[in-house]
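Changelog-adjacent note: as of this version, every example in the card shows the full chain rather than a window. The one below runs 123 residues end to end.
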Amino acid sequence: QVQLVESGGGLVQAGGSLRLSCVASGRTFSNYVMAWFRQAPGKEREFVAAIIRSAGTTDYADSVKGRFTISRDNAKNTVFLQMNTLKPEDTAVYYCAARTQFIRTTAASYDYWGQGTQVTVSS
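Full-length structure tokens:
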């Protein structure tokens, strides 16, 4: 089992920045591909970004490329999502997720999930 706990969400004006964190416990963190998903009210959970175990390869949804950056610190069992130039359409609950092996962009491919953190961007 892997336990994931997100933090860092909040209310920010359009154009602002937030940094989300997700701390993992329970298994060897460096064995897992880590990802961020988000879910807005009435919408499906969607892929935002992912990073492989060694932190060398990342993947992003087109909607956040150039604005969001995913990173990880394996020594601290933590994955981060730096979100810049935020837009109202970024408003959602953001979830941290983990899986073994390769990056996948579908939520069903991930085995472990955090409880989510709310991000609200005002216009």
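Structural remarks: The chain has a mean pLDDT of 95.
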